[in-house]
Write a structure and sequence with these properties.
seven-stranded mixed β-sheet; about 190 residues; globular; about 25% strand; alpha/beta; three-stranded mixed β-sheet; 5 helices
């Protein structure tokens, strides 16, 4: 595949994945998110983790606010993305939902006064969002490359993706820098990728 063909294929997957999750009602997203969260909370990789890198969901993504609160109440160190440069983000600790504010791309992030960078070596589980996933763990994100760069630095931490079943596709073309996930959790199933 040429570079242009890769870009076109990913653009199409991104468009279709976003349309698929937009096609869900708010009630479906809430119900499916609850099922996905319940399944995640039973996963050995999650249960064993002491420091979890998660994300604060955009409106149409699998909801995570309750999950973030629950993880903190379970005594886990919870980290969220903090964008610090082009294609580069770090993990910042979330100590309270009250520490969140709207950041870049209208995504909730830890406000500056509460930011504490967490060394990447401490992270022992990564919860990954995405727009489309194939059953072998390949993913398409929003398109900034932030997660691929971040996941390349967290090679040892299990990667668990949360997504709706309507975002599972037959194939995602990969380039050398694209990072895969280990497990995909939807409202209907757990997909073990590797």
């Amino acid at each position: 595949m040429t570079e242009a063909e890769f870009k076109e294929a990913k653009r199409n997957l991104r468009r279709d994945g976003l349309a698929a999750r937009r096609g869900l009602t708010a009630e479906q997203r809430a119900e499916y998110s609850q099922r996905i969260m319940d399944t995640l909370l039973e996963q050995p990789a999650y249960l064993a983790a002491k420091c979890v890198f998660a994300y604060s969901a955009m409106e149409e993504e699998v909801h995570t606010e309750e999950l973030l609160t629950m993880m903190m109440s379970m005594g886990k160190k919870v980290c969220l993305p903090h964008i610090i440069g082009v294609h580069h983000m770090e993990a910042v600790r979330l100590k309270s939902i009250a520490d969140l504010e709207v950041g870049e791309y209208d995504i909730l992030t830890v406000k500056e006064s509460a930011r504490e960078i967490v060394p990447i070596e401490e992270i022992d589980c990564v919860i990954v969002p995405g727009v489309a996933f194939s059953r072998d763990g390949a993913r398409v994100g929003i398109g900034g490359g932030y997660y691929d760069e971040f996941l390349a630095r967290t090679k040892k931490a299990p990667r668990l993706a949360l997504t709706y079943s309507c975002q599972i596709v037959d194939e995602v073309p990969l380039q050398e820098w694209d990072q895969k996930v280990d497990t995909i959790i939807t409202e209907n199933e757990i997909i073990t990728c590797r």
